[in-house]
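Dear Dr. K.,

Following up on our conversation at the group meeting, I've run the structure prediction for cysteine synthase from Arabidopsis thaliana. I'm pasting the input sequence below exactly as I used it, so you can double-check it against your construct before we proceed with anything downstream. Let me know if the numbering doesn't match what you have in your notebook.
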Amino acid sequence: MAPVNMTGAVVAAAALLMLTSYSFFFRLSEKKKRKEKLTMRNGLVDAIGNTPLIRINSLSEATGCEILGKCEFLNPGGSVKDRVAVKIIQEALESGKLFPGGIVTEGSAGSTAISLATVAPAYGCKCHVVIPDDAAIEKSQIIEALGASVERVRPVSITHKDHYVNIARRRADEANELASKRRLGSETNGIHQEKTNGCTVEEVKEPSLFSDSVTGGFFADQFENLANYRAHYEGTGPEIWHQTQGNIDAFVAAAGTGGTLAGVSRFLQDKNERVKCFLIDPPGSGLYNKVTRGVMYTREEAEGRRLKNPFDTITEGIGINRLTKNFLMAKLDGGFRGTDKEAVEMSR
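The predicted structure tokens came back this morning:
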């Protein structure tokens, strides 16, 4: 065999190996790209949840314990309430209490309003928020920037019919009434007609806050709607369990509606009854006393003589002086009273 032919065979083999290798890595690259596409979040709703746990180094090193924080601020709406907004709207749509084109109403001056305004359009719905007029104007501006309508009302007791939460409930009823009348075709150019003793009586209808095309209303009712609790029992709790690989000793959280504390505590203790769950409560809230003493009053007050606002606190969105349906689902081992000073120190 001539040497030249031999050389040619080696070169050909080498070239074949190079082409095969190139093809192999190309397929790996394509497979990797397909995998990356699968891990992308499909729209805003899919981007909610699965937030990371971070080790809080300063506290972990100071205590000798591994102290982790769940980064709920990484949700699109900036808080844990995104999970609640999704669950509330999904369950309402599935149950037929809400339809695309409907209005989701809520009385809220905080994160829930922002989350509902963020999430509702993803389901083809609109959002109407009623807030007290002593809330920061920036909150109204954020909610309106997200496409929701905002109704500011004067602050009154929750027992008053014009408390912002009660007004939000009425607005949902009004939207349902408007949609019902439209479906029945009982309106003509804004004139409502009724027959009394055989005579037609025309009554000019008060202008509505909502358009005639609205398909109905649904009051989110974040405090009493157990979709709040379920969002955390089915989502946040399992995430924490998975991220810690079940190696968790205790869970601590504050409570406003009580949904986060209830859902996570019940899930973790259902997985392992040795996991301890605790409430951290701000000044002025009665939950700490209820958890630790069984009654919702403070040492400074006699039972049945509570002041309306016995304390002032810099914290927002946590602490309450009544028991909600969501909070009653919690499985707690105890509670702690936190101070504003401690809150500020921990934030830094």
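Two things stood out to me. The chain has eleven helices and twelve strands. The two ends are 81 Å apart (CA to CA).

Best regards,
J.T.
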